[in-house]
Design a protein that fits this description.
213 residues; alpha+beta; 5 helices; 8 strands; 27% helix
Length: 213
């Protein structure tokens, strides 16, 4: 029977990029899978919250939290395993696209969890989607990793510029009674008398000769 709307428990375009299965074989596994991939989670969403939510449609066998590969902290996704395929389909119908911690979460059928898939695959250790994210998302660590590095470089440049303004204020200034001179010029004795007055602490060679006579 034709559907006017796409069924909520229909297979989506989601797939593990490292799974080399043919589409027909993959669909065969999905047709009996009891495992869900859940994405767009906040970093602070706990395993207990996920179990509580997904248990509303069936008994949850286990939850595997997605972790940052380097920090070993949650990075915004998880796998939820049920005992039965029907419960996984019910979760697609009633839980996917609902809010958890003020975020719209996404659930998709997954062929089955394998060890190692719990770690992020981004260059920085988290998810790839957070590498290139341009927006600020407080639930997912703030800026995307590339944007965060750009912001850090801008802050460092501004800090260096402000330090130069303090120590080289138009190439002249005073700090603690000492005159600041531009780089490359002769050093000026900050406490030397101004003008051409001679410093009494030093004597010329001629004065020394007069005293010996």
């Amino acid at each position: 029977m034709a559907h006017v709307c796409t069924p909520l428990d229909a297979f989506s375009s989601y797939r593990d990029s490292r799974n080399a299965q043919a589409e027909a074989e993959r669909n065969a596994e999905l047709s009996k899978s009891a495992t869900l991939y859940v994405g767009n989670l906040a970093y602070f969403t706990s395993e207990e919250q996920i179990v509580e939510l997904f248990s509303k449609v069936g008994n949850v066998k286990r939850v595997i939290m997605g972790l940052d590969r380097n920090k070993k902290t949650p990075c915004g996704f998880c796998f939820v395993e049920y005992y039965f395929h029907a419960d996984a389909l019910a979760a697609l119908r009633y839980i996917s696209q609902t809010k958890l911690d003020e975020r719209i979460i996404r659930a998709d059928l997954d062929p089955g969890y394998k060890d190692g898939r719990q770690y992020g695959r981004g260059k920085s250790g988290g998810q790839v989607r957070d590498e290139y994210r341009e927006d600020f998302d407080s639930g997912r660590g703030g800026w995307g990793h590339m944007k965060a590095r750009e912001q850090q470089m801008i802050m460092e440049e501004e800090r260096e510029r402000s330090q130069r303004d303090v120590y080289y204020d138009d190439h002249q200034g005073a700090i603690g009674g000492m005159r600041i001179v531009p780089m490359g010029e002769h050093t000026i004795d900050a406490f030397a008398p101004e003008g051409n007055a001679e410093n009494p602490r030093f004597r010329t060679e001629r004065e020394d000769d007069d005293e010996d006579m």
